[in-house]
User: Fold this.
Amino acid sequence: MNISYNGQALTLSQPHSLLEVIEAQGAQAPYAVALNGQFVPRSGLAEQQLQEGDSIELLSPIQGG
Amino acid sequence: MQTDKPFTVYGEQFDSRLLIGSALYPSPEVMQQSLLASRAQIVTVSLRRQNSVSAGDDFWQLIKDTGLRVLPNTAGCHSVKEVVTLAQMCREVFATDWIKLELIGDEYNLQPDPIALLEATEILIKQGFKVLPYCTDDLVVCQRLADLGCEVLMPWGAPIGTGKGLLNPYNLQTIRERLPDHTLIVDAGLGLPSHAVQALELGYDAVLLNSAIAGAGCPVTMASAFHHAVVAGRAAYVAQAMPEKEVAAPSTPTMGMPFWHQN
Assistant:
């Protein structure tokens, strides 16, 4: 299964939940996640199963003006 | 002695009328020192991909150490969908309903898109957000944002990062007069403490800026200068300026002039 993780192509050998992929990528808290442009609350990460072509965005605090 | 009205943001009261950005500083240490020197109580932050160089827990820890109230922004968004998603992500990460709503309509001068801004504001307010919209100095746009439930409005002084000051004081003054009970903050375009003084003298409740401090030769000193500017500007507004006159009027009494001025 081919997905996109923060703009990078990623190939998964088997189905995974959103949380599994995020943890496997070494995500460091604090962060928030969007799947295909839709916000996924933290409480929903484990139950969200990924599909071919999904796009994950994992965002963290940064300087802002 | 005139009494002043407190500066409030969605019911929360603040002593400082300066809101400050956390971007573009030469180092994290200078950022932290500048935030403290500004005596601001509200700092703007944002969200980016975690694999970007400057993202992460270190920055967030520095901000938390300052104890300032955070105001997340949606900088870089160009559509209603982007802005709503980013606002929802900000709410989870920063644990606040506040959102500085930035929705850019033009890449050249980063002018806010007034039509999309209204649409996004309506959606976000229905979702429980307390929206602080960064908007143009258009009276009708500001009125529509107020109608949607924005208690705070943030018209621009000039395009982001230009440092040009208040390009259209007449527009800003008109917004102030037509929305007397709303919290109004001039956001973006300020370059000098005198620009902040002018905004406060017009009756604006506060100013929000970043580049003017971060881009100064000595950001910490400039942060302190802006602190004094907002204090001076607000005091001048509360004191009520003298009326302008078209002809000279002597300030020294003319009664009792010495003999060499008498016929």
